[in-house]
Amino acid sequence: MKFKGLLFDKDGTLLEFHNLWLNVSHGVSQVVKDYSNQHQGHQNVTITALLSAIGIEGDVVLNHGLLASNPVEDIAQAWFDMLAPDVSIAAFTQVTKAAFNQQVKHHCEWIQALPGVTEKLRAFKQQGIYLGIATADTKDATLYSLAKAGLSELFDYIGYSDGDIEPKPAPALLNAFCQQCGIEPHEVIMFGDTVSDMEFGHRAGAKKVGVLTGTALRDELAPVADLVISSVAHFDLQAFNALD
């Protein structure tokens, strides 16, 4: 089988994850905590507790945590339930989303493509392969970070989770990629650094390649991926075509 489309998670798969999102999450949690305090929220909830609730333990981002796999709406809901400020969930989510977008720009020095990824993506484009993004990040942060990393022009489809499409692991983003490029899910390979990314590819009917540049370990990805590699930069499409 000849694969016609490659769909990628963004952070931890194409872009550096840990330094950026640890810094961003600390900044956002403080903004959200301050906002909650101003609106009669529970003041005994600590920043450490807020970070733990989204899967950050010290300097480690857990593979199954909200930050690694879920859209901002889910993070906002978890924090809203803990803090219980006297505002609507819609207003709280808007503040949380704006804080994430602002903190990404504030820590833009950490936005960078992983080693060898840019060259590999360009090689795929030269082969006539359709390339897409499927991320749990917001529209603003996604477009900003891809532009900052110099990758924007390489993609035929950029899918993000901003409340207007069902997020991963539901197959909606992969189906939208296929529709835009005129291909079928079985002609797509999904690349990601989380178990959720692999479940996403499975639900949509795509092949799944796990990478070890993000939050998951090989032992976590191997049972749910068709292949696990150290990095997108090391993927051999010709060899994968021959295996299928």
TrEMBL record:
Respond yes or no to whether keyword Transcription is given for this record.
no
EC number(s): the record gives 3.1.3.18
The reply to whether Isomerase figures as a keyword in the UniProt entry is no
Q: Describe which pathway this protein belongs to, using the record's wording.
A: Organic acid metabolism; glycolate biosynthesis; glycolate from 2-phosphoglycolate: step 1/1
User: What's the protein name?
Assistant: phosphoglycolate phosphatase
Q: Which GO terms describe its molecular function?
A: phosphoglycolate phosphatase activity
Which reaction does this enzyme catalyse, per its entry? 2-phosphoglycolate + H2O = glycolate + phosphate
Q: By its UniProt entry, which Gene3D superfamilies does this protein fall under?
A: HAD superfamily/HAD-like, Putative phosphatase, domain 2
Arranged from A to Z, the UniProt key words for this protein are: Hydrolase
Matching SUPFAM superfamilies:
HAD-like (SSF56784)
- Give the family, as the similarity comment puts it: Belongs to the HAD-like hydrolase superfamily. CbbY/CbbZ/Gph/YieH family.
Q: Which residues form the signal peptide?
A: none
Q: What class of enzyme is it?
A: hydrolase
Q: Which superkingdom? A: Bacteria
